[in-house]
Design brief:
Strand order of the largest sheet: 1-2
Number of strands: 2
Number of domains: 1
Order of helices and strands: HEEH
Number of helices: 2
Radius of gyration: 63 Å
Shape: rod-shaped
Distance between the termini: 175 Å
């Protein structure tokens, strides 16, 4: 039986009791009160046992919830650590890639500078050789022109002589 029901019945028995005039005492039915007290004695251990069971169930549920919460927190921490590691690895990879690109750009700039210097050197030598060749060609032309002019005067006088001989 429910202990609260038994307490309600005991209260009902007490409220039905008759008052002794000029006192705070009641006349009640003793057998009814004793019967209710006996039922309470039987019921209280059952109620206490039920309360203990409910308390154990509550503690079990709380422990289970705390265990589950612990697993969830541990999993979240693990996932967060993995995400941080991935982020860290990504940042390191990006930094490495940037360094490689920067190094490659520096090397390319240095190679281009060296190639430009080499091209200037080769072109300067070629220009000098061309100047020498041009000078040689120019000198050859002048020499030939001088020879042609000298020979032309000789050829011109021979031609005139031949014309004079042919006319005679």
């Amino acid at each position: 039986m429910d202990i609260l029901y038994l307490l309600d019945r005991l209260e009902s028995v007490l409220s039905k009791g008759r008052r002794i005039p000029f006192t705070s005492n009641l006349i009640i039915r003793e057998d009814e009160c004793l019967e209710l007290i006996d039922q309470m004695r039987v019921s209280i251990p059952a109620e206490v046992e039920r309360a203990r069971e409910l308390e154990q169930e509550r503690e079990r549920i709380i422990a289970q919830a705390q265990e589950e919460a612990g697993r969830i927190v541990a999993l979240a921490k693990e996932q967060m650590a993995e995400a941080l590691d991935e982020h860290k690895i990504l940042k390191e990879a990006q930094a490495r890639a940037d360094a490689i690109i920067e190094d490659a750009q520096r090397k390319a700039d240095a190679f281009k500078l060296e190639a430009d210097k080499y091209a200037i050197e080769v072109l300067s030598r070629l220009e000098e050789e061309l100047r020498n060749l041009l000078s040689t060609v120019h000198n050859g032309i002048i020499t030939l022109q001088e020879e042609v002019q000298e020979g032309g005067e000789q050829i011109g006088s021979v031609t005139e002589d031949q014309d004079i001989e042919g006319a005679t």
